[in-house]
Amino acid sequence: MLAQALPRPHGEAPPALRGPNHAWLERILLAQRQGRSCLPVRLGLEDAAYAALIQANFPQLAGQYDSAPPQVPERGALRAELLELRRDEWQELRDLLINGRADREPFEEALACIVAAACLGGDHLWRDLGLASREQLRELLEYNFPRLAARNTHNMRWKKFFYRQLCEQDGGYVCRSPSCEHCPTYHDCFGEER
Known about the structure:
By secondary structure, the protein is mostly helical. The protein contains eleven helices and no strands. Helix 5 (about 85-100) crosses helix 6. The protein starts with 14 loop residues before the first helix and ends in a 5-residue tail after the last helix.
């Protein structure tokens, strides 16, 4: 199990007892450190936010996770550069997520930043986050951003859904078709992900 890959001090509660966000953050962090996600160094968070996230959730790792993972330093730097180039887009995605948050956990804003950074990757969002399945992503989004997740009534792929929401919100992103049902690429947005 992934949770066993990060060391825990004696007596620390397992992630299941700490809440679902701890387990999701552990999976995301481990995948990023192993080069199995598109996330840059510090998961796309500012230095202080990243340090607070690690200290609160994985204090035993606080000094160890300050730099790029040894397996992927070049990719991490390139991903951080991409995030900077697309900062406005990232901000809009982050704001969309924050506006739909549950307001029950202290790190929902950090998760919004991390999910927004993963949206800039080129694969399915669950893969870009390093999660095991779309189901895990759905659970993460429904738990942390329930008002936003509830609007995905037709099970649209999450990245496409977020961009569609931004399109409807501001008209800033142009969707290919005025109606999904008539769009020639309907199956790119809906249906099974492989």
